[in-house]
Amino acid sequence: MDTTLWMVKTACQHRARRISHDTLFSVMELTKMSDMTKLHQAVAAGDHSLVKRILKKGLCDPNYKDVDWNDRTPLHWAASKGQMEMIRLLIEYGARPCLVTSVGWTPAHFAAESGHLNVLKALHALHAAIDAPDFFGDTPKRIAQIYGQKACVAFLEKAELKCQDHRRAAHQKGLPLDERDEDWDAKKRELEQSLPSLNQNMNKKNKKSRGPTRPSNTKEKTV
């Protein structure tokens, strides 16, 4: 399957079905763990001592994106599972909180989905861009709202404002911010160009199977 088509299909499925990433992991871990790097495997399994050994020896890049898991980095796994010590360790060895998955999810999106308030606080303390939208425009706060994580929503409402204030102050002082995923810029443009054509093909297929339908005046909101 063409890489772009696969990315778009994955994005559409994610947005339409709202599949929990932890649920997805539990279903597929046995068949795909072997495709992950040793570092990804160790983080996903919560093996702190093994992760530390791997990082100390420089065996794996802490920012490596696993294409078989929608471009997740080890930090995405740690955030989704609420592993605070793992997050601190990864950050110590250079993990970047700004890196995103194939649909634009930051570690903060995963933490918000799973309700890991302590992770969100840690990312905020690192001045991570916890207000960053994904490909569909959903911020971590919006994800927290979708999954009913009220404590996370309350925190993010205030944290977003502080994040924006910090960004403005940094720009005024000319201070650098590590908020941009360079790879994501190109992939996002690729998705934007491919998604309309894919939607048209899907609509044609649906019309053939269901017959003519009355156009809707509303657009479904999905992730």
UniProtKB/TrEMBL annotation:
Q: Where is the composition biased (Polar residues)?
A: 194-203
Q: Where are the ANK repeats?
A: 70-102, 103-135
Q: Where is this region: Disordered?
A: 167-223
Instruction: Keyword check for Repressor, yes or no.
Output: no
Q: Matching Pfam families, A to Z? A: Ank_2
Which UniProt keywords are listed?
Answer: ANK repeat, Repeat
Q: Where are the transmembrane segments?
A: none
| InterPro entries reported for this sequence | Ank_Repeat/CDKN_Inhibitor (IPR050776), Ankyrin_rpt (IPR002110), Ankyrin_rpt-contain_sf (IPR036770)
- Protein name as catalogued: Ankyrin repeat domain 66
The protein's gene is named ANKRD66
